[in-house]
Amino acid sequence: MKKVLLMGAGNVGYAIAYDLTGDYELTIGDVDEKALNEFEKYGNVMELDALDREALGSAFEQVDVVVCALPGKLGFRVIETAIGSGTDVVDVSFMPEDPFVLQDEAEGAGISVIVDAGFGPGLPNLFIGRLNTLMEEIDRCMIRIGGLPKHPEPPLFHSVTWSPLDLIEEYTRPARVIRDGKVECLEPFEDIGRVEVRGMEFEEFYSDGLRTLLDTMKIETIEETTLRWKGHIRKMKVLKELGFFEPERVPGTLDVILPHMVPKGKDISILEVDVEGKYKGEKTKTGYSLYDESHDGFSSMARTTGFTTALMTRLILTGDMDKGILPLESLGADKMIHDFVVNELRARGVHIGRKGDKLQI
Description:
Structural class: alpha/beta
Distance between the termini: 34 Å
Strand content: 25-35%
Number of helices: 13
Number of strands: 16
Oligomer: single chain
Shape: globular
Strand order of the largest sheet: 3-2-1-4-5-6-15
Radius of gyration: 20 Å
């Protein structure tokens, strides 16, 4: 039986463990002993500090694949260590570093590293990779994505279903977009828009979710916005302007705002990918639409992220992957991989639809 080491005993890690248990020999590693207790029904647990490179390397050498579901600040370190131990990696940490700087090292080590293997970034990349293969050219691509409470409550109209540190990072990291073929950097809250999706009205802000798409896709214009219920973004903008999101002040800020963003009731995940380009010589509009709600004790964010990561883990364990850094847009170009992920997510209750009827995706 193949051996999997899952790093990260959080909500997303819990969904990954649930999906993989029974099919593989699973070990879950984290520094939080209390959190690990919740994972004992899914596999072996071990206290493992991602900052201890020697301990990491030793643990990695004993398994077939490492799944990194840790906060973004630890992702790059995990991949570096896995390269040193010659172990394949599936990463969903949303790390700030450019993974392609490790391309030569990963290829040299003969390992596969699937990066951004989650809901977003992740599934938009997979979908765009498939469309890019089918269409003669893509002129414009717009990604709208959000993980939100189904019924928002004041005062912040949001709930935290993933890493709070990465949530703040989303509000502070400059958002890179491509306009007229050139990369531009935008401040996340400099342009707050309004949009209607699935009959619901949201506010949206530019977010830095394109990541590997900035290097792998030749698209004239591509942008991503994150969706929030009305009222949340403007309050976060004030906190940011007052300096409460400065690194040294983030812990104290979270102490104040997190009690107002405790998940209550159902949460939802929404993804809209809209593409304009040319197909069989004609101008075409197409894309994807995804909707999900929390179910069976799992938040929707944990489902859409964790199940996607688990599916990528299953794929990498087939041993039939290219070597090096593998973003999901490169994997989505393969119809078999694309169809496997989409069909398996649908089987798990995630609603995925296609826009437009010209393309046989």
